[in-house]
Write a structure and sequence with these properties.
Largest interface: A-B, 54 and 59 residues
Low-confidence stretches of chain B: 34-39
Distance between the termini of chain B: 51 Å
CATH class of chain A: Alpha Beta
Shape of chain A: elongated
Radius of gyration of chain A: 16 Å
CATH topology of chain A: 2,3-Dihydroxybiphenyl 1,2-Dioxygenase, domain 1
CATH superfamily of chain A: 2,3-Dihydroxybiphenyl 1,2-Dioxygenase, domain 1
Number of helices of chain B: 3
Shape of chain B: elongated
CATH architecture of chain B: Roll
Radius of gyration of chain B: 24 Å
Helix content of chain B: 10-25%
Mean pLDDT of chain A: 92
Strand content of chain A: 35-45%
Order of helices and strands of chain A: EHEEEEHEEEE
Oligomer: heterodimer
Chain lengths: ~140, ~170
């Protein structure tokens, strides 16, 4: 069972699904509405929604009461651990995937920010210290 | 000759046929554990402007536990399988053109609660801000809470028809 749930706002759910499943190893769990899809990858459940009108049956991407529309982008992101960041980035660049930056070496990991087709960030990281590894916990 | 009086409580041992498909599935599951970074939780990074305020909020209001706070600009929290990294925007996170990340946006973690009305009431009493009112969708009721930096956190309560693949 996927135990961590993250929702990303995307412009086009079909396009986003293709991206996450083809390039990042996600699996489609359900796609019951053009504006909604649920994908999983390990313990991560990724809900992709496109902005919908206030009267749409799906509640997760309606505008706010003041009319503010939900939109893709921002800086908060989920992170995917990879074992060889250089190789992963090479592969993704060859596939035409965009990145916001180049590989940065931090305290606990090497990391980079990829973008999905709507411009949402995805952080890819390779642990260089034990504490940064998920299984250390 | 009397037998063991406990025999009456014991279940008969029934011979069973071996099930190759069960063994194959078990082997697949065991081998899948070798895959790195799958099935061991998930990590999310949020940017916050005030690390102390953020750590207090997530730990006191939402049940996270502080795991690491090795610097004034970084903390690692856990809640179940979710590892939440809180980062204060700083140079290592700047883009090549110098742009710094900032809190906010609409992408978010979603936390399941069993009683959304009660959770929202309790959070409001403690001064928490929300972006909207509870909205009913297809399978869940949900609301958008904000952390002190203005990052969204979705709280949801499953309703009839909620589906979760086990």
């Amino acid at each position: 069972m996927s135990t961590v749930s993250v929702r990303y706002i995307v412009n086009d759910v079909d396009e986003a699904m293709a991206f996450y499943c083809r390039h990042l190893g996600f699996e489609e769990q359900m796609h019951p509405d053009p504006a909604f899809a649920m994908l999983t990858r390990g313990d991560l459940r990724l809900v992709l929604v496109s902005p919908v009108p206030a009267d749409h049956r799906g509640g997760g991407s309606r505008p706010m009461p003041d009319g503010a529309k939900q939109e893709p982008g921002g800086w908060n992101r989920f992170m995917l651990e990879v074992s060889d960041l250089d190789a992963t980035v090479d592969t993704l660049r060859e596939a035409g995937i965009r990145f916001r930056n180049d590989i940065v070496t931090g305290v606990g990991s090497k990391q980079i920010m990829a973008e999905d087709p709507s411009g949402n960030p995805i952080e890819l990281f390779e642990p260089i210290r034990a504490e940064a590894r998920l299984e250390a916990s | 000759m009397t037998g063991d009086p406990l025999d009456a409580l014991r279940l008969p041992i029934v011979p069973i046929d071996p099930r190759p498909e069960f063994a194959a599935a078990l082997l697949r599951r065991l081998e899948a554990r070798e895959e790195p970074a799958l099935g061991r939780g998930a990590t999310v990074r949020y940017f916050v402007d005030d690390l102390d305020a953020a750590v207090s909020f997530y730990c006191e209001q939402l049940g996270f536990e502080e795991e690491l706070r090795p610097s004034p600009v970084f903390a690692m929290l856990y809640r179940g399988e979710l590892r939440l990294l809180l980062s204060v925007p700083s140079e290592p996170h700047a883009l090549p053109d110098g742009t710094l990340p900032e809190p906010g946006g609409w992408n978010r973690i979603s936390l399941q609660v069993s009683d959304l009305d009660a959770a929202v009431r309790a959070l409001r009493e403690r001064g928490a801000r929300f972006r909207n009112e509870i909205a009913s969708g297809v399978a869940v009721r949900q609301v958008l809470l904000e952390d002190p930096a203005g990052n969204p956190i979705e709280l949801f309560e499953p309703s009839a028809g909620y589906h979760e693949r086990s």
